[in-house]
Fold this sequence. Notes:
By secondary structure, the chain is an alpha/beta fold. The chain is 44% helix and 19% strand. Residues 1-8 have low confidence and may be disordered.
Amino acid sequence: xxxxxxxxxxxxxxxxxxxxxxxxxxxxxxxxxxxxxxxxxxxxxxxxxxxxxxxxxxxxxxxxxxxxxxxxxxxxxxxxxxxxxxxxxxxxxxxxxxxxxxxxxxxxxxxxxxxxxxxxxxxxxxxxxxxxxxxxx
Length: 137
């Protein structure tokens, strides 16, 4: 009986370890203008991308969250500047949001790219099987 329990524990642990190693794809949605949300989202993106290097992560910024990717004023800029260089991370901002804020691509943190519409980007990612995380309060 004791050997059976040990074998069961080993099998369960192996299955759990394998499940944690399966590559995933996650899109993070940030619309809040709250700097604490920006910092938290950047931290989540950093931790996930470092913990799961074979997985893919995209941060989609739109609406009131523009300041998160502004090269001159981002409260999460230091973290984003580092993680945008990771091969498994992309950070995008909605072009409509840029227009509303009278900003251009030159105003963005280097490595941040644009998409025509942030909501559309998220929907497409979900249709492609990406997981969805809404960041915010």
